[in-house]
Amino acid sequence: MDQFFTFTDEAFLKKERDKARKLRSSQWWKRKRASGICHYCHNAFLPKELTMDHIIPLSRGGKSEKFNLVPCCKECNTKKRQLLPFEWKEYMDSLKK
Ligand SMILES: [Zn+2]
């Protein structure tokens, strides 16, 4: 049973994607990415290697707000995409140990 409500409303997704695109070119994001640290694995990367990730995906009702956007390395991004939210949580917990 899927306990998550899935947001597939195109207007919502378009608006949030537009907001994310604008934030990607902002000073706020450039400063955040300049740290070179992936939000999830805490490894160091070149800023250009980090992508913008929605902690709560747009498809799960997450928004393009600053608190929901983090720098993420390609490896974590790929892993996160393949996992369901609860599986990703298990992965995150395993990193903390
Ligand atoms: Zn990472």
UniProtKB/TrEMBL annotation:
Name of this protein: HNH endonuclease family protein
Record-linked SMART domains: HNHc
Pfam families named in the record: HNH_5
InterPro entries: HNH_5 (IPR029471), HNH_nuc (IPR003615), NA-targeting_endonuclease (IPR052892)
Classification lineage: Bacteria, Pseudomonadati, Thermodesulfobacteriota, Desulfobacteria, Desulfobacterales
Domain HNH nuclease, residue spans: 27-78
Protein keywords: Endonuclease, Hydrolase, Nuclease
Organism annotation: Desulfobacula toluolica (strain DSM 7467 / Tol2)
Highest taxon of source: Bacteria
CDD domains hit by this protein: HNHc
GO MF annotation, one: endonuclease activity
